[in-house]
Amino acid sequence: MKDIHHELIDFIESGSPFHRFLNIQVIDAKPGFIKLRLPYKEQFGGNMERGILHGGISSMFVDIVAASTLWTHLGPEDKTATIDLRVDYQRPAMLEDLIGEGEVRMLGNSIANVHVRLYSASTPDTVQAEGRAVFHIKRKK
Fold it and tell me: Are the C-beta atoms of 58 and 40 separated by less than 8 Å?
């Protein structure tokens, strides 16, 4: 996880009260790419009879993975805001840890585009959802 500013991992895992509540974990990070784990919590259940996560959990995690991916290209003083977020659900996510991988597809001076794929920890070859996020960037001068 070299070539990214040293505060990034701590910020992603514990810089936000929401991330601490979720227990977000960084698995891998390098410029333009990140891999995060969202540990399963019982409160994430959607349809318990079918054994699947609530769809809102996936959507929230796409946003976190996308923003974290973008931050691999930015400094600790730079600011970002989500402009647009799209999630395409491909199959239900099971009641287990969720893994998210993000890749920066376009990085401009003030706009960026990030692609995200989510999968259940036990089935890394089966994409549960894909997402795309567009961000506004305000760089520290």
Answer: no
Instruction: Return the structure tokens found at 84.
Output: 């647009």
Angle CA(59)–CA(69)–CA(43) in degrees, nearest 5? 35
What single string gives the DSSP state of each residue in 93-141?
Answer: PBSS-EEEEEEEEEE-SSEEEEEEEEEETT-TTSEEEEEEEEEEEE---
* String of DSSP letters for 10-35: HHHHHSSHHHHHHT-EEEEEETTEEE
The whole-angstrom distance between residue 79's C-alpha and the CA centroid of its chain comes to 17
Q: Which residues contact 20 (CB under 8 A, 6 or more apart)?
A: 13, 14
For the segment 7-24, what is each residue's pLDDT rounded down to a tens digit?
A: 889 989 998 899 999 999
Give per-residue pLDDT as tens, 48-88: 888 889 999 999 999 999 999 999 999 888 999 999 999 99
> Rounded distance, CA 116 to CA 132, Å?
6
pTM, whole model, 2 decimals? 0.93
Does position 2 have pLDDT exceeding 80, yes or no?
no
